[in-house]
Amino acid sequence: MTTLGAAVADARSRFSTAGLPDAVIEARLLIGGLLGLSSTEVFTGGDRVLTDQELSLVEKAVERRLKREPVHRILGIREFHGMELLISKETLEPRPDTEILVDSMLAYLRQIVAGKGSARILDLGTGTGAIVLALLKESPQAQGIGSDISEDALQTALRNAARLGMSERFQAIRSDWFDAISGRFDIIVSNPPYIRSDVIPALDPEVRDFDPLTALDGGPDGLEAYRAIAASAGDFLEKDGVIGVEIGFDQKETVTAIFRVAGFTLVEALRDYGDNDRVLVFTVNHP
């Protein structure tokens, strides 16, 4: 008989031996997630005897983690901005730093809703739908569109919207940036691919081998997505609208320059939890 505590200890030991960081936390998170237990229940329920089926489930998951597959990909879910989101093969795993983009947009969203009574949001490269769904969660008067080139991502975003009770306020559109988009929006947001192509082979295996390449690769200089967005965003933004983008830690000046040339003004720049530049907010210039 194997107890929960023994299974966690074994996973922790194997993760540690393999050189994985945060072995203790990951062992508890992985096994707790597999068994539907909270972190407290994992911590206090060490004497629980696992069934053969549970042991098999745990063993397969531990083996996957030892091959560097991230814990949340194994579990198929990730918490983001107070929501539990499904993740899939062609979606980027939502990360805490992206919550900064959501929080930066909330003040603008509330101001727009206060003035107009409603707001339209466009999330370019939506993936799981994390950004737009987090904004819709905080503003019941808002409507949102998530666009992506991946059908897998769009289906995942739709499933997340349904799970969160937002299906009536969320629409998924397959589009290469603005190609299939129509109308104007009060807020445009995007966490686009921004890693230089030559850097990708050196990324951690958890990112390089499991996050979708299309969500990572920003081209030779990492800036291709920003050029595409800046070139067309002005045609889709309301007069007093704002656009917010996530950026790489060393891209503040170059991305700002791209948007400035395209007719935008930087109104806010925010840093992430590691004190790196992470979010830029622009308004469109008017004659």
SSE diagram, text form:
Blueprint: H1 4-17, H2 23-35, H3 39-44, H4 52-66, H5 71-75, E1 77-80, E2 83-86, H6 98-116, E3 119-124, H7 130-138, E4 142-148, H8 151-163, E5 170-174, E6 185-190, H9 205-208, H10 224-233, E7 237-246, H11 252-261, E8 264-271, E9 277-284
Parallel strand pairs: 3-4, 3-6, 4-5, 6-7
Antiparallel strand pairs: 1-2, 7-9, 8-9
Q: What would CATH call the class of the largest domain?
A: Alpha Beta
Order of helices and strands: HHHHHEEHEHEHEEHHEHEE
What are the segments in which pLDDT stays under 50 over at least 5 consecutive residues? none
Q: Classify the oligomer.
A: single chain
**Can you give the helix content as a percent range?**
40-55%
The largest sheet has its strands arranged as 5-4-3-6-7-9-8
Cα-based radius of gyration, to the nearest Å: 21 Å
Whole-number tally of structural domains? 2
The CATH topology of the largest domain corresponds to: Rossmann fold
Mean pLDDT: 96
**SSE class:** alpha/beta
Question: What's the end-to-end separation, in Å?
Answer: 75 Å
- Counted beta strands: 9
Question: What is the helix tally?
Answer: 11
- What CATH architecture of the largest domain do you see? 3-Layer(aba) Sandwich
